[in-house]
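User: Second chain of the day. Same drill as before.
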Amino acid sequence: MSINVETVVTGPFQENSYIVWYSDSMDAIFVDPGDDEHLIIQSIEDNKLTPIAIVNTHAHLDHIGAVQPLKHKYDIPFYLHPNEQYILNTYEDACRMFGMPSRETPAVDVWFNDAENLKINAFNIHLVPTPGHTPGGTCLEIDNHLFVGDTLFRGSVGRTDLPGGDWATLESSLVHLFNSVAHDRIVHPGHGPDTTLHYELKENPFLNPLKDRVN
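Assistant: Same format as last time:
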C-alpha cells in the first residue's frame, strides 16, 4: 500500500498545500491548505478522492486560507495544536496587514497534543512537536513522508521574527526532529521543493551549529 502526495502551490506566498492518500483508497487528507481552494478542489476531483480531514502544522495565514471553505464543502474536521490558538486568533488582522482579503477564521474541531498520535481512518500520523516558528508548530510523519510546515526548508529553516516565534525554541525543535525521525524520510516543507533530513543535515548551513546535538 503506497502513499500518494499531491502538492498544490497556493496564494501570493506560494505555499505548498498537500493532498495525501493511499493507493488502495479514495480517502484523502489535506495538510496545510493555504489558499486557492478552487485549485485544491480541482485536484480532488481530478483524482476522484474523498476528503476526510484537514490537519495543519501551524496556523499562519498562508497555511489556513482554504481551511474553512474546504470544511464547508466536504463537512470534514480541522485538526490543530492548541498552542496555535494565539496565531489563529490573529488571522483576520494578519490578512489586513498583508493586504489580503479578510476571510473567516477556521473553526478547529480537534485540538491534538504532543503526547498523542492521530489515527484518521487508515492514516496513522506521528506528531513531532516543533515549536519555534510558531508556539504550536508540529511536524506530521505519515509512513515515509514528513510534513514540516515552516520548521525546515531545503537549505533554510523557519523564521522566528513574527509574533510567537523564538529562535532558541526552534533550534531545540530542530534537534528533536532530527533525533526523532529517520533521516531518509521525504520532507515536504511549507514552501519550496521537497528534501530529506539526510540532505539538510549535510548541506543546510543553518543546521551547522546544531550538528553536535544530533544523534
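The chain has seven helices and 14 strands.

User: Great, on to the next one.
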